[in-house]
Specification:
The structure is a homodimer.
Chain A: E1 3-7, H1 14-26, E2 30-35, E3 39-42, E4 48-51, E5 53-54, H2 55-58, E6 65-68, H3 74-77, H4 81-92, E7 97-100, H5 104-110, E8 117-118, H6 125-130, E9 134-135, E10 141-143, E11 146-149, H7 155-168
Parallel strand pairs in A: 1-2, 1-6, 2-5, 6-7, 7-11, 8-9
Antiparallel strand pairs in A: 3-4, 10-11
Chain lengths: 172, 172
């Protein structure tokens, strides 16, 4: 079974976590949420979801797909060494990563942005550029293993592009 | 272009509106939200979405697909004559309708439940039965043009079944 990992924390942008969470399940994918600690995390708007494992646990396991939602969560996720290790491994192994909004803050801290084409929430555009990224103002930017989007209205195109990548790479 | 109509109101269950809203857009469908009045409506959890038309306006137009999300909104939607007229027309014309959670409250008031197999949030099961419905405890119940689900965790199966119906009927 294909396994996807969502890495997030309290303050996630609810619909940026829940849309890929349900969308990937719709494809028959096993979707696991990891957070700094195992247990409930609460979204910026108010949804509660269960993180079934901590980053410390997740880093020991293998996943096929990585999703990094936005909101205020990425500023918490980027402080966690194991979360950054997970991200680096996905990039090293060229495995699919989807991120949106403030999610690229985690990519910046993992040091995987240099030379990559990507987008993000406009408010962190300068950080993406300072980290060596090529920032593009588009609903969904695909660059190799990475599919990025700016904000919730981009989600249809974000997931359409990401699922196309999964099919291209025979993960689905 | 295929046109979908979402009928809702203040108090909608956020993810039950936003998931089909983005999911149908992902398929290239034009998705319109209608409410008692044109303008913003606010979800139970706190998301704000723009209803681009009132039910009075929507009833004058043609749509291919109808979605009725849950939350507290259906108790408001069911008070609106034009909303009920829209629902009745969808059933009369055997066009695809997706509903979830408290959404079937609108179906009850439209008088379209009798003899139909469907599911809903457990708390309104007895109302569905009293209205003549055959209530089934399953993540997604398909009966002709109608695809119903119980609550947010059913959404992957709900949309998978609904999109299968749209393909079967050559709407996609």
């Amino acid at each position: 079974m294909v396994r996807a990992l969502i890495i997030s924390a309290d303050g996630f942008e609810d619909i940026e976590l829940l849309y890929p969470y349900y969308r990937l399940q719709e494809l028959g994918i096993d979707v696991i949420i990891a957070a700094p600690q195992q247990g409930d995390i609460v979204g910026k708007v108010g949804y509660k979801v269960k993180a079934s494992m901590s980053f410390k646990e997740a880093v020991k396991q293998d996943f096929d797909i990585l999703v990094i939602p936005g909101g205020r969560a990425p500023e918490r996720v980027r402080l966690e060494a194991e979360a950054l290790e997970i991200v680096r491994r996905f990039f090293k192994e060229d495995k699919p990563v989807a991120t949106i909004c403030h999610g690229p803050q985690v990519l910046i801290s993992a040091g995987v942005v240099r030379g990559r084409r990507l987008t993000s929430w406009w408010g962190i555009k300068d950080d993406v550029i300072a980290a060596g990224g090529i920032w593009i103002d588009s609903p969904a930017v695909v660059d190799g293993n990475l599919v990025s989007a700016r904000y919730p209205p981009d989600e249809p195109e974000w997931m359409r592009s990401f699922i196309a990548l999964l099919r291209e790479r025979k993960i689905l």
